[in-house]
């Protein structure tokens, strides 16, 4: 009897151990998925000289890996569309740049179900989430043309010693962008062809803005400490930095395609690359942030400097010198100026935001019909500003297996804000993370994801219409 009791006890112990192992494995998997911690170390023990040397040494390999990914995914050549330019004359790039799987064309892919594309691994790589040039590191990263102009005007250096911007200049917005004001449409572009900075904002806008708006603009071009650009030993600029400005990403109230990682997702590998959206037309928008759904431009302005500048970490923000804006005056002034930024002129649109058939080409008219019909664009992008001010989940994860891509774990993105399409040709690349390089790419992407079955002529007409917005 004693042996039976001991035997049953050992069996019970064995079962308990097996259960604990299963629980342990499940916990380890959940722990890995959830991430070790939401926090970055505050007390950095490695000295700055050592950090910089280590990261400089790793830079070539990091950039080589990212550029190899871009070359594998995209046709990065300079192929301007004939006779189509942005508002101040920079050529608009044409053609689908995402590369096809070998042996397939777009019609063949469009004929397949999401399950077939997923099971066979045929979803185009260029339609997958795009990682930051160094996703495990992240942080604000600026195109060289912006770095050079800021250095020339202010002597402030936005160069990172660990990284360079990855996309070619011809695939980015024109620089510096024109500025249109809702209050003075009679003046047209008020930028005078200059990048607005702390050095010239007053001479450019005195007499056009009221004193509150000028003060708001001053704050938008004033450098404040940020995660990678500050005075601490864990900065990413060679010299101690005064920081960055709102207009270092939203250059001239538009965008220069600077990139960053969103501050509201953890762990690091799940954070989205952020393609900086234009500030043009924020007066008609009701949601701010690609996923945060902040309800006012004041909320967004305050959130950016208090949290997004420092990856959503208030402890790090305090260490690096966070600028606490005063809501009743400074935030309000900044928001008031931003609300003046207008969309670029669209001479072919009428007062309802629809094409004037007397001014439009036949292709544009056909494209408008596709946009409001078979293309299913209008439910999310209604006229006149071509946004519904809501968020939508495209569930693109239906088309591919979750996978790690250069440090970015590609899985479900969740709901994303509907961005306005007015002036869309001025702000490549597209989608919230910049994975779509041209308007042709966006049409092909949505044709596949929404199962639209558009013909080649319908796709081309749709692109023509969007260029007229």
TrEMBL record:
Keywords: Heme, Iron, Metal-binding. Gene3D superfamilies: Cytochrome c-like domain. Residues 362-469 form the Cytochrome c domain. GO terms for molecular function: cytochrome-c peroxidase activity; electron transfer activity; heme binding; metal ion binding. PROSITE patterns: CYTC. This is Cytochrome B6. It comes from Candidatus Abyssobacteria bacterium SURF_17. The lineage of its organism: Bacteria, Pseudomonadati, Candidatus Hydrogenedentota, Candidatus Abyssobacteria.
């Amino acid at each position: 009897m004693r042996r039976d009791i001991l035997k049953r006890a050992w069996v019970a112990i064995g079962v308990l151990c097996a259960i604990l192992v299963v629980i342990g494995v499940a916990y380890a998997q959940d722990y890995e998925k959830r991430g070790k911690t939401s926090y970055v170390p505050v007390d950095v023990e490695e000295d700055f000289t050592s950090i910089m040397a280590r990261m400089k040494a790793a830079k070539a390999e990091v950039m080589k890996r990212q550029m190899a990914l871009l070359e594998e995914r995209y046709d990065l050549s300079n192929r301007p569309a004939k006779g189509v330019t942005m508002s101040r004359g920079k050529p608009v790039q044409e053609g689908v740049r995402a590369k096809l799987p070998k042996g397939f064309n777009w019609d063949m892919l469009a004929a397949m179900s999401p399950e077939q594309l997923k099971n066979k691994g045929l979803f185009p790589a260029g339609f997958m989430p795009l990682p930051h040039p160094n996703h495990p590191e992240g942080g604000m990263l600026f195109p060289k043309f912006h770095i050079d102009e800021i250095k020339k005007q202010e002597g402030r250096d936005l160069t990172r010693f660990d990284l360079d911007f990855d996309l070619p200049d011809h695939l980015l917005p024109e620089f510096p962008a024109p500025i249109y004001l809702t209050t003075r449409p009679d003046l047209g572009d008020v930028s005078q062809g200059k990048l607005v900075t702390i050095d010239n904002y007053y001479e450019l806008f005195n007499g056009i803005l009221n004193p509150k708006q000028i003060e708001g603009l001053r704050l938008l071009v004033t450098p404040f400490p940020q995660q990678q650009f500050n005075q601490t030993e864990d900065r990413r600029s060679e010299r101690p930095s005064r920081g960055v400005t709102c207009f270092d990403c939203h250059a001239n109230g538009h965008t220069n395609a600077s990139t960053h990682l969103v501050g509201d997702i953890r762990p690091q590998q799940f954070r989205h690359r952020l393609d900086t959206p234009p500030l043009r037309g924020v007066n008609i928008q009701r949601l701010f942030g690609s996923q945060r759904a902040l309800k006012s431009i004041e909320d967004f302005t305050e959130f950016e400097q208090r949290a997004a500048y420092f990856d959503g970490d208030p402890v790090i923000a305090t260490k690096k010198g966070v600028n606490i804006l005063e809501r009743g005056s400074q935030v309000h002034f900044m928001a008031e100026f931003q609300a003046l930024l207008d969309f670029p002129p669209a001479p072919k649109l009428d007062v309802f935001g629809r094409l004037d058939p007397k001014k439009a080409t036949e292709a544009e008219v056909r494209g408008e019909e596709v946009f409001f019909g078979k293309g299913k664009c209008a439910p999310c992008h209604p006229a006149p500003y071509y946004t519904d001010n809501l968020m939508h989940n495209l569930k693109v994860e239906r088309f591919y297996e979750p996978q790690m891509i250069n440090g970015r774990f590609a899985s479900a993105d969740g709901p994303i804000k509907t961005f306005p399409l007015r002036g869309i040709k001025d702000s490549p690349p597209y989608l919230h993370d910049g994975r779509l390089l041209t308007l042709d790419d966006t049409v092909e992407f949505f044709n596949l994801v929404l199962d639209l079955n558009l013909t080649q002529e319908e796709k081309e007409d749709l692109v023509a219409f969007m260029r007229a917005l």
